[in-house]
Amino acid sequence: MRYLSTRGDPGRKRFCEILLEGLAPDGGLYLPEHYPRVDAATLARWRAVFNNGAPGGYAALAFEILSLYIDDIPAADLRALCEKTYTEAVYGTPQIVPLKRLDPGLCLEALSNGPTLAFKDMAMQLLGNLFEYELGRRGAELNILGATSGDTGSAAEYAMRGKKGVRVFMLSPHGRMSPFQQAQMFSLMDENIHNIAIAGVFDDCQDIVKNVSNDLAFKRDYRIGTVNSINWARLLAQVVYYFAGYFQATVKDTEPVSFTVPSGNFGNVCAGHVARQMGLPIDKLVVATNENDVLDEFFRTGTYRVRGAADTHETSSPSMDISKASNFERFVFDLLGRDGARTKALFGDTLARTGRFDLGADPVFADAARRYGFRSGKSTHADRLATIRSVFERHGVMIDTHTADGVKVAQEHRDAGVPMVVLETALPIKFADTIVEALGRPPERPARFEGIEDLPRRVHVMPADTAAVQAYIAAHCKPV
Ligand SMILES: *Cc1c(COP(=O)(O)O)cnc(C)c1O
Question: Structural domain tally of the chain?
Answer without folding.
Answer: 1
